[in-house]
Amino acid sequence: MTASTPLIIGHRGASAIAPENTIAAFRLALAAGADGVEFDVRLTRDGIPVVIHDDNLRRTGSLPQTVASLSLAELKQVDVGSWFNRTQKRSTSDFSGEKIPTLEEVFQLFESTDAVLYLEMKSDATQRDQLATVCSESLRARSFKARVIVECFDLAGIETVKRLDPQIKTAALFEPTLVTSWLVNSGRKMIEQALAAGADEIALHQRLASQQVIETAKAAGLKVVVWTVDDKVWVRRAQSCGISALITNDPGLMILEHNRLRPV
Questions:
Q1: What whole-number distance in Å separates Cα of residue 95 and Cα of residue 58?
Q2: Is the pTM of this model over 0.90?
Q3: What's domain 7-42+115-261's superfamily in CATH?
């Protein structure tokens, strides 16, 4: 692991070389030396938190159903590896048969490591409180709770997590489509919203991560995370302006650059 700023975090694992949000992708991120991983959590029909980005299975499971319409037992029958074999020519591995992991299975994988985990809650307003409650309860008794950051675009979800357990670290997510006039006032509107939600960190899409916004966020006491960056020039930029973490699809590439720039 890089063990210095910026942390290199695998976006949905090492998703450039393995099917996203699978145990295989998480293992490969660790093998590459990533400081941690980012992953997405949704609820099944029977209320079990599982790790998947999309609200449906069309892209990664070749099925029309939504995650929320299926039970855990039904979701465990879905192959979420074969699509990667068909679409990603870079990989020489066969990921057929990879399954959607539960949050518990991901936690078990990382429990004996020192990896940092960025848990993104994915829900609409109808499931917000339920998902926040389930995630908070899953973390409550964990010895590695301090290594987990719960993030969400829906800042009300962050507020709910903080209300349930103020000790859980949180990050407010922002992307350009959610922000109007984002350059105005050095990003102060985003930063005010993050602070109002009780966030400890602000996670910015790379297009929002101007020098002004970064400096303003840091001055307000927020750690700055930038996503999703696969251009290695971001490593030097992060080192120079104090970005805490870079979330990348290709942690191996970014770690090579991180190590190259590290002082001897």
A1: 17
A2: yes
A3: Phosphatidylinositol (PI) phosphodiesterase (3.20.20.190)
